[in-house]
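Lab notebook, design round three. We kept the backbone fixed and only want residue identities now. Task for the bench partner: fill in a sequence for the structure below.
Input structure tokens:
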């Protein structure tokens, strides 16, 4: 299935509706799109996301920790994101943990 990012603006936020399978390449594309948003009020809508890999989950956990709102997230993705945050708290130095850097710098775990 094709991965798509559809962007629209509401009075309160910029919404990125994601659809399809999300992997490291798609997480990188999304990171680049998010870096271009100056106002910082961003919502990711995962309603039509069908499959994610670990790099995408780690990215999503990171941007959520950096105050990007995630809505319509599949339950298995939400659980996996929580597990990734827990794992990082136990195993990674503070400076590499999810959510420590601005959104544009969430690339350390995209290179795993």
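Proposed sequence:
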């Amino acid at each position: 299935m094709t991965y798509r990012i559809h962007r629209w603006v509401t009075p309160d936020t910029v919404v990125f509706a994601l659809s399809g399978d999300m992997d490291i390449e798609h997480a990188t594309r999304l990171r680049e799109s998010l870096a271009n948003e100056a106002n910082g009020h961003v919502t990711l809508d995962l309603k039509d996301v069908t499959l994610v890999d670990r790099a995408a989950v780690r990215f999503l956990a990171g941007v959520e920790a950096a105050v990007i709102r995630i809505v319509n997230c599949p339950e298995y993705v939400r659980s996996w994101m929580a597990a990734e945050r827990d794992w990082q708290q136990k195993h990674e130095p503070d400076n590499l943990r999810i959510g420590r850097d601005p959104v544009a710098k969430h690339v350390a775990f995209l290179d795993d």
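Keep this in mind before ordering anything: Residues 75-91 form the longest helix (17 residues).
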